[in-house]
Amino acid sequence: MRRRGFFTGLGFNVIVLGIASLLTDVSTEMMLPLFPIFTVQVLGAAPAVLGFIEGLAESAASLLKVFSGWWSDRIGKRKPLILGGYWLSTVVKPFLALASTWAHALGVRFMDRVGKGIRTSPRDALLADSCAPNIRGKAFGFHRALDTIGAILGPAFAFLLLLFLGFRDIFLLASIPAILAVVVLMFFVHEVRRKRAPKLSFKAGLGSLSPSFRRYLAVVTLFSLGNLSWAFLILRASELGLGAGQVVLLYMLFNVVYALVSLPAGMLSDRIGRRPVIASGYCIFGFTSVGLALATSAWQALPLFAFYGVFMGLVVGVQRAYVADLIAPRLWGTAMGAFHTATGLALFPASVIAGVLWQVIGSWAAFAFAAVLSFVAALLMITALKPSHAETKASIR
């Protein structure tokens, strides 16, 4: 029997969407590792304010994800929304270089996330449209891997540029790969013919989502309430004594591990089912949070950021593939939107709670809270949800 390679069966759309995400993440990740330090140390924001910025930007943008996904189902087209979302994020990024207060940084971060909110659900639905069901985990894992390679290159460029330039100059240069991503999407991504969703109202569309999907969404949302923003991990590394350049390198390490794990994790979920892979990732995040709560030396951040990369590689793409497993193709956009919106909205209280716990009690309290919720969510992922088709097939082999 012929062995299936990593790239077997991946269509042109999957590859092009991955390249666009790679370029966009080069742009975004040139800025993101510097954003917490810039906001706190240059603009004078407190950790609680940083939590407010992250939570508000992510949650408000998440509200758009369910609408954009539902609208892509309704009109039968994904590309206009994908292209528009990437374009908006590209336009606003240079304005961070002009920020003089944390409110200005909030505005830029907010609009960048609005662009992500417009594009994410239609893009994930188009990924599902563009691949066969038996390689769905691989397709999402491949996309995550390319996206994360961009997140490796971005901090690498930022680290090198820090030797010669300041934060604001780097923020300006970060727009170049984002512009290239928009060009790639404009000329090379194509729509996939599919059965259009019935003319359901927004409320009726959400009501059509299956009970099994709703149970899954409840578990993922619970986990998201404790899923600390990357900004707090970077702030914790800084608290342990790492400088800006070292933090950027640490962030690169996390993304290297994330990229290496994503594709094999997706392929593993195609073979044994999504739930065991997701639950394992939740547990790893829990142990990583415990480690960050107890860390006392700068060197300890190195393995903990690597474990955080393993968690992300196991969970992010596989969670999205599981959404497509549970929902009929004609409602993939709506389901992806509901998934992204619910988990994104949960990040607002998650970030605010973490910021307050950090400021009032200490950083250990924020990570302890995250660990407890992650272990509970892992248990529910296995006990409260039914086995997927892949798990059932694996159990009878």
- Unreliable spans are none
**Mass-distribution shape:** globular
Largest sheet: none
Indicate the radius of gyration in whole angstroms.
Answer: 20 Å
What is the helix tally? 17
The portion of residues assigned to helices is: over 70%
Distance between the first and last residues' Cα = 17 Å
In the CATH scheme, what's the topology name? Growth Hormone, Chain: A
Number of E-type strands: 0
CATH superfamily: MFS general substrate transporter like domains
Mean pLDDT: 83
From the coordinates shown, what is the CATH architecture?
Up-down Bundle
Write down the CATH class: Mainly Alpha
Class computed from helices, strands and strand pairing: mainly alpha
Total number of domains = 1
Beta percentage is under 5%
Helix/strand order, N-terminal first: HHHHHHHHHHHHHHHHH
Structural descriptors:
single chain, 397 residues, mainly alpha, Growth Hormone, Chain: A, 17 helices
Describe, in plain words, how this protein is organized in 3D.
There is one protein chain. The chain is mainly alpha-helical and 397 residues long. The chain has one domain (12-191, 206-395): Up-down Bundle (Growth Hormone, Chain: A). It contains 17 helices and no strands. The protein has helices at residues 12-31, 35-42, 47-75, 79-92, 102-129, 136-162, 167-173, 175-188, 202-207, 211-224, 230-239, 244-272, 274-294, 301-326, 332-360, 363-383, 389-395. Helix 12 crosses helix 17. The longest helix has 29 residues, at 47-75. It starts with 11 loop residues before the first helix and ends with a helix. The model has no long low-confidence stretch (mean pLDDT 83).
